[in-house]
Amino acid sequence: MTAGSTAAVRPRNRRQLIVEAAGRVFSLRGYHGASMEEIATSVGITAAALYRHFPNKYALFAECANVTVDRLVATLDELPAEAGLADVLAAVTRVTVAHRASGGVYRWEARYLDSQDRKLLRGKFGYVVERVTDLVSREHPLPDERLRAAAALGAIGSITMHRTSIAQRRTEELLLASAMRVVATDPTAGTGGAPLVELPAQPVPRTRRAEILAAAIPLFERDGFATVTNGRIAEAVGLVPSAIYRYFPGKADILAEACLQAAGLLGQAVEQNLRGVTDPREAVVTLAATYVAYSFEHTALTNVANAELIGLPAKLQRPLIIEQREHIAVWEQQLRSARPELDSRQARVLVHAGFGVVFEAGRRLKWQDSPGHRDAVAALVVAALGV
Q1: Per-residue pLDDT for 192 more than 70?
Q2: Could you give the count of Cα atoms lying within 13 Å of 187 in the half-sphere of its Cβ?
Q3: For residue range 276-294, what is the model confidence (pLDDT) as tens digits?
Q4: Nearest 5 degrees, angle CA 128-CA 129-CA 131?
Q5: What percentage of residues in the chain have a pLDDT greater than 70?
Q6: 160: which of 88, 104, 133, 321 fits an S-S bond (Cβ 3.0–4.6 Å)?
Q7: Same domain, yes or no, for 230 and 318?
Q8: Is residue 161 part of a domain?
């Protein structure tokens, strides 16, 4: 190459750049919605160049699913043997926040890994959880140390599931403080006078349209939206596949209506249980108890709504995003009333941390519904919020 030549020089870390870009695309669009062409474009290379590094989309996806946990494991292994719980959680928080744009791949999309790759991924995360659990039991010898460890990691990991814009250092401070409150909370002590909450009954499917929704939701949860066909949904309700189109224009419309149904039930529950509540702390506790009760009672509906929203076309996503924002705005208002030192962005980060606690604690409890489990998770949510 002659002096002054403008020929492009291939960066030495191109594979790393590809993985980071792919993680963002997979997090934004989901495994099935992402394309190798879009990933290549985001890196500034051709699809042919991308295939020189990865033979297919699955191989790239599998590496993306592992990259965050590999960073976590490596970071924890570099800590000195005498590192305490605060040091470990701070390290986890730094890695997670630094890679928030791509770190959410494992939470929902990892179900598309084959069984061997899922087992490998679970083993790595298991190592992180065990490291935290050991320190939790040593420094905070209270009941349910595994539950508290999982919930604390859920609070930290929540940053990968939303796009609230906030300074990195402030985010780390908020999430670390939230996680430390969670691990120091006795989940068997309850929330300090949380009122009993009531949930609206899920509608009994009395129409063919409602039957289709009721059949589709558990299929979407178990196998993923992309892999469930209209034929399987139709078979579940005793229809021929073409009959589905009498009730819904397409499969995405079934998913969108299921998600709207979930949002509607949750909105009704919040409005009903907050009626007459004037004390800000009581309102936050009520919101936590309501969200936890709803998540345990409508697990399939909640999981589908959380996991599959990114797979919907923009026009179907829009009303769901509006519903989500309205729900979070209620939390934000009540949390800021209870904690006036928080600004709106800080409050939203903590609200999502509370949601992350519910998700990881619920998974740890295998979503086995009982008053004790609901009370324990609600107590951890309240701790995460710092009220």
Answers
A1: no
A2: 27
A3: 999 999 999 999 999 999 9
A4: 65
A5: 95
A6: 104
A7: yes
A8: no
Residues 223, 324, single domain; the answer is: yes
Domain count, the chain: 2
Parent domain of 110: 13-139
Torsion angle (degrees, nearest 10) of CA 97, 102, 108, 112: -150
- Count the alpha carbons within 13 Å of 246 in the hemisphere toward its beta carbon: 11
* pTM check: above 0.85: yes
From 91, 107, 139, give the residue that closes a domain: 139
Q: What is the mean pLDDT of residues 30-56?
A: 92
Is the sign of the CA dihedral 323, 325, 331, 333 positive or negative? Answer: negative
Q: Does residue 167 belong to any structural domain of this protein?
A: no
- The pLDDT mean for the chain works out to 91
Say which residue the tokens 């420094």 belong to.
139
3-state DSSP assignment of residue 18: helix
- Structure tokens that stand for 261 in this block: 């149904």
Residue 353 has pLDDT above 50, yes or no: yes
Amino acid at 143: P
- Report whether 289 contacts 191 (CB < 8 A): yes
What's the whole-number mean pLDDT along residues 49-58?
A: 95
Which is higher by pLDDT, 26 or 177? 177
Q: 269 and 132 share a domain?
A: no
Domain boundary among 85, 110, 139: 139
Cα 160 from Cα 64, distance rounded (Å): 14
| 176 falls within a domain | no
User: Nearest Cα to 256, choosing from 332, 316, 297?
Assistant: 316
Q: Which two tokens stand for residue 60?
A: 């790239």
Tokens matching residue 231: 């034929």
